[in-house]
Design goal:
The chain is of the alpha/beta class and about 325 residues long. Helices cover about 30% and strands about 20% of the residues. The protein has two domains: about 170 residues, Rossmann fold (3-Layer(aba) Sandwich), CATH 3.40.50; about 130 residues, CoaB-like (Rossmann fold), CATH 3.40.50. The structure holds flavin mononucleotide.
């Protein structure tokens, strides 16, 4: 038997109560529970009666390695004891029904009653048909919860269980796990204003061709999310990247190294920290043609060095603490 490598995670030994409700995405809750267990959290699951139509208590019991609760009356005081023992409550998927009940203090089953008695942090991952999601009374309920500090993750736009396309798909399980980590992370960077650069740059030789590199942006995006979770005001200046834009921070999209330099300069005057994780191109074509360069035998491309962003900022009178990355 091989032993799994221990990962350092904020969820280790934390108690997470997962509420599963009766939505088409309920089957994804098994993966969510499994992923939370991988992060070494203790996971307890409460299913609504409707959730039982989509996924079995047995599957969630196997994933959580704990008995799954469903009824208010199976175990006296579970509705008080379970939330009181939890560091975090995550409802995924969260139906229109549970969100509206939660927003209005309705306590008519085990999960909704736990929501009323839970004093701590709560994450909801709404999942429903786009028409339900747009419903104005539902939106008022959602707004009520988020303005009271309930953490909302998703939904995303995409093909829904009903076959229609729209905004209503449950957030990716990995994003829900990220949000859970974020919710339980110490906010020791409150007051810091952190600029993070990420991704590659593109240096054009004509309107359709450019020099770039294979940077994905993953490092910078991860640093930006971590700084955000720890309470910093974060500005993420990103070159072209296929990654999803993280929420809860200022996102500045750039393309060329010159644009990256000007964005960095304009945001660093008030920044306390600059983390340069972007793979800024060292070279750019010496000339940029306004028209597409015609195919003409062997073409020689002359390159010039681009401006070194770190040394530009480091030379400024008022400069932030600078962290640079190099491959
Ligand atoms: C096949 C089917 C799929 C459903 N999918 C969803 C859904 O994705 N989101 C949602 O809010 N409601 C959905 N519903 C409606 C809920 O199951 C219904 O509102 C139920 O009362 C929710 O109960 P709960 O919030 O206690 O789990 C679906 C119903 C059916 C029959």
């Amino acid at each position: 038997m091989t032993k799994r490598k221990k990962v350092l995670t904020v969820l280790r030994n934390k108690s997470v109560l997962v509420g599963v409700t009766g939505g088409a995405a309920a089957y994804k809750s098994i993966d969510l529970v499994r992923r939370l267990k991988e992060e070494e959290a203790s996971v307890f699951v409460i299913m609504t009666e409707a959730a039982g139509k989509f996924v079995t208590p047995l599957s969630l019991g196997i994933a959580s390695q704990n008995r799954v609760c469903s009824s208010l009356f199976d175990e006296p005081m579970a509705h008080i004891k379970m939330p009181a023992a939890a560091d975090l409550l995550v409802i995924a998927p969260a139906t229109a029904n549970i969100i509206s009940k939660f927003a209005n203090g309705i306590a008519d089953d085990l999960l909704s009653t736990c929501l009323v008695s839970h004093p701590g942090k709560t994450i909801i991952a709404p999942s429903m048909n786009w028409r339900m999601y747009q419903n104005r009374f539902f939106q008022q309920n959602l707004q009520k919860l988020t303005s009271a500090g309930v953490i909302q993750v998703g939904p995303e736009r995409g093909v829904l269980a009903c076959g229609e396309e729209g905004l209503g798909r449950m957030a990716e399980v990995s994003d829900i796990v990220e949000a859970a980590k974020g919710a339980l992370t110490d906010r020791d960077l409150v007051g810091e204003d952190i600029i993070v650069t990420a991704g590659p740059t593109r240096e054009y030789l004509d309107p359709v061709r450019f020099i770039s590199n294979r940077s994905s942006g993953k490092m910078g995006y991860a640093l930006a999310r971590a700084a955000r979770d720890r309470g910093a005001d974060v500005t993420l200046i990103s070159g072209p990247s296929a990654l999803e834009r993280p929420g809860g921070l200022k996102f500045v999209e750039v393309e060329t190294s010159a644009e990256m330099l000007s964005a960095v300069k304009s945001y660093t005057s008030k920044a306390t920290v600059l983390i340069m994780a972007a793979a800024v191109s060292d070279f750019a074509p010496a000339m940029r043609s306004d028209a597409k360069i015609e195919k003409d035998g062997n073409t020689t491309l002359r390159l010039r060095l681009t401006d070194d962003i770190i040394s530009e900022v480091a030379g400024a009178e008022k400069r932030p603490f600078i962290i640079g990355f190099a491959a």
